[in-house]
Amino acid sequence: MKYTKDEILAGCNKMCQNTLMETLKIEFTDVGDDFIVARMPVTSRVHQPDGVLHGGASVALAESVGSAGAFVFLNSEEIIIRGLEIAANHVKSVRDGYVYAHASIIHKGRTTQLWQIKITNEEGALVSLVKLTTLTLPIKN
After folding, report:
1. Could you tell me which CDD domains the record lists for this protein (predicted)?
2. The CATH number of the domain where 84 resides is what?
3. What CA dihedral angle connects 45, 96, 88 and 55, to 10 degrees?
4. Is 63 a residue of the active site?
Protein backbone atom coordinates (compact mmCIF):
# COMPACT_ATOMS: atom_id res chain seq x y z
CA MET A 1 0.00 0.00 0.00
CA LYS A 2 1.40 3.34 -0.98
CA TYR A 3 -0.95 5.31 1.28
CA THR A 4 -1.49 5.11 5.03
CA LYS A 5 -4.38 3.11 6.44
CA ASP A 6 -6.21 6.30 7.43
CA GLU A 7 -5.74 7.81 3.94
CA ILE A 8 -7.08 4.67 2.27
CA LEU A 9 -10.14 4.49 4.53
CA ALA A 10 -10.84 8.21 4.08
CA GLY A 11 -10.57 7.83 0.29
CA CYS A 12 -12.88 4.81 0.22
CA ASN A 13 -15.44 6.56 2.41
CA LYS A 14 -15.25 9.71 0.27
CA MET A 15 -15.93 7.66 -2.88
CA CYS A 16 -19.21 6.53 -1.26
CA GLN A 17 -20.71 10.02 -1.30
CA ASN A 18 -23.81 10.35 -3.50
CA THR A 19 -23.84 6.62 -4.34
CA LEU A 20 -25.70 3.48 -3.33
CA MET A 21 -23.06 2.99 -0.63
CA GLU A 22 -24.08 6.26 1.01
CA THR A 23 -27.76 5.31 0.73
CA LEU A 24 -27.02 2.00 2.51
CA LYS A 25 -24.74 3.83 4.99
CA ILE A 26 -21.76 1.59 4.15
CA GLU A 27 -18.61 2.69 5.96
CA PHE A 28 -15.08 1.39 5.41
CA THR A 29 -13.54 0.60 8.79
CA ASP A 30 -10.30 -1.34 8.33
CA VAL A 31 -7.69 -2.20 5.73
CA GLY A 32 -4.52 -4.29 5.80
CA ASP A 33 -1.99 -5.69 3.37
CA ASP A 34 -4.45 -8.20 1.91
CA PHE A 35 -7.94 -7.31 3.18
CA ILE A 36 -10.45 -4.50 3.49
CA VAL A 37 -13.48 -4.25 5.80
CA ALA A 38 -16.69 -2.24 5.65
CA ARG A 39 -19.78 -2.23 7.83
CA MET A 40 -23.44 -1.52 7.17
CA PRO A 41 -26.20 -0.85 9.70
CA VAL A 42 -29.12 -3.26 9.63
CA THR A 43 -32.29 -1.19 9.92
CA SER A 44 -35.67 -1.16 8.20
CA ARG A 45 -33.90 0.60 5.31
CA VAL A 46 -32.24 -2.74 4.33
CA HIS A 47 -34.91 -5.18 5.55
CA GLN A 48 -37.06 -7.63 3.62
CA PRO A 49 -40.80 -7.30 4.37
CA ASP A 50 -40.45 -9.82 7.23
CA GLY A 51 -37.94 -7.64 9.09
CA VAL A 52 -34.59 -9.31 8.35
CA LEU A 53 -31.61 -8.17 6.29
CA HIS A 54 -32.36 -8.34 2.56
CA GLY A 55 -29.94 -10.55 0.61
CA GLY A 56 -29.66 -7.88 -2.06
CA ALA A 57 -28.36 -5.39 0.50
CA SER A 58 -25.77 -7.97 1.61
CA VAL A 59 -24.69 -8.47 -2.01
CA ALA A 60 -24.44 -4.69 -2.52
CA LEU A 61 -22.23 -4.49 0.58
CA ALA A 62 -20.05 -7.37 -0.66
CA GLU A 63 -19.59 -5.95 -4.15
CA SER A 64 -18.82 -2.52 -2.72
CA VAL A 65 -16.08 -3.77 -0.42
CA GLY A 66 -14.61 -6.20 -2.98
CA SER A 67 -14.50 -3.55 -5.70
CA ALA A 68 -12.90 -1.05 -3.32
CA GLY A 69 -10.33 -3.70 -2.43
CA ALA A 70 -9.50 -4.26 -6.09
CA PHE A 71 -8.97 -0.53 -6.57
CA VAL A 72 -6.80 -0.24 -3.43
CA PHE A 73 -4.66 -3.35 -3.92
CA LEU A 74 -3.98 -2.89 -7.63
CA ASN A 75 -2.21 0.37 -6.69
CA SER A 76 -3.23 2.40 -9.67
CA GLU A 77 -5.33 5.48 -10.14
CA GLU A 78 -5.42 4.77 -13.90
CA ILE A 79 -8.06 2.02 -13.72
CA ILE A 80 -11.75 1.41 -13.27
CA ILE A 81 -13.12 -1.69 -11.56
CA ARG A 82 -16.23 -3.55 -12.67
CA GLY A 83 -17.89 -6.56 -11.12
CA LEU A 84 -18.09 -9.49 -13.54
CA GLU A 85 -19.76 -12.14 -11.42
CA ILE A 86 -21.03 -12.42 -7.88
CA ALA A 87 -22.38 -15.43 -5.99
CA ALA A 88 -23.69 -15.31 -2.45
CA ASN A 89 -24.79 -17.86 0.10
CA HIS A 90 -26.89 -16.41 2.92
CA VAL A 91 -26.71 -18.60 6.03
CA LYS A 92 -27.97 -16.49 8.93
CA SER A 93 -30.63 -13.82 9.44
CA VAL A 94 -29.96 -10.44 11.03
CA ARG A 95 -32.65 -8.06 12.30
CA ASP A 96 -30.60 -5.15 13.66
CA GLY A 97 -27.14 -3.92 14.57
CA TYR A 98 -24.32 -3.97 12.04
CA VAL A 99 -22.97 -6.45 9.54
CA TYR A 100 -19.30 -6.45 8.60
CA ALA A 101 -17.90 -7.41 5.20
CA HIS A 102 -14.30 -8.67 5.22
CA ALA A 103 -12.92 -8.94 1.67
CA SER A 104 -9.73 -10.83 0.94
CA ILE A 105 -8.18 -11.46 -2.43
CA ILE A 106 -7.89 -15.03 -3.68
CA HIS A 107 -6.48 -14.26 -7.15
CA LYS A 108 -4.80 -10.97 -8.10
CA GLY A 109 -4.46 -10.94 -11.88
CA ARG A 110 -3.72 -7.94 -14.06
CA THR A 111 -7.21 -7.92 -15.57
CA THR A 112 -9.32 -10.16 -13.34
CA GLN A 113 -9.37 -10.63 -9.60
CA LEU A 114 -11.21 -13.13 -7.41
CA TRP A 115 -12.42 -12.03 -3.99
CA GLN A 116 -13.92 -13.80 -1.02
CA ILE A 117 -16.13 -11.67 1.17
CA LYS A 118 -17.32 -12.93 4.53
CA ILE A 119 -20.23 -10.99 5.98
CA THR A 120 -20.60 -11.43 9.73
CA ASN A 121 -22.85 -10.03 12.45
CA GLU A 122 -21.63 -8.09 15.48
CA GLU A 123 -20.88 -11.33 17.33
CA GLY A 124 -18.71 -12.58 14.45
CA ALA A 125 -21.14 -15.25 13.22
CA LEU A 126 -21.19 -15.83 9.47
CA VAL A 127 -24.21 -14.24 7.78
CA SER A 128 -23.22 -14.54 4.09
CA LEU A 129 -20.31 -15.94 2.13
CA VAL A 130 -19.74 -14.18 -1.19
CA LYS A 131 -17.44 -14.77 -4.16
CA LEU A 132 -16.82 -11.79 -6.44
CA THR A 133 -14.91 -11.63 -9.72
CA THR A 134 -13.76 -8.14 -10.72
CA LEU A 135 -12.45 -6.79 -14.01
CA THR A 136 -9.84 -4.06 -14.27
CA LEU A 137 -10.12 -1.67 -17.20
CA PRO A 138 -7.87 1.25 -18.15
CA ILE A 139 -9.39 4.70 -17.94
CA LYS A 140 -10.03 5.99 -21.45
CA ASN A 141 -9.12 9.62 -22.00
Report:
1. PaaI_thioesterase (cd03443)
2. 3.10.129.10
3. -30
4. yes
When pLDDT is cut at 50, 70 and 90, the band that residue 121 belongs to is very high
| Gap between the Cα atoms of 50 and 129, Å rounded | 22
Catalytic residue among 27, 63, 77, 123: 63
Residue 94 and residue 58 in contact, taking contact as beta carbons nearer than 8 Å: no
Structural domain including 112 reads 5-138
Angle, vertex CA 10, rays to CA 56 and CA 74, nearest 5? 75
Nearest to 82 by CA among 104, 105, 96, 63: 63
Overall number of domains in the chain: 1
- Quote the pTM value: 0.93
Rounded CA separation 43/86 (Å): 24
Question: Alpha carbon 52 to chain centroid distance?
Answer: 20
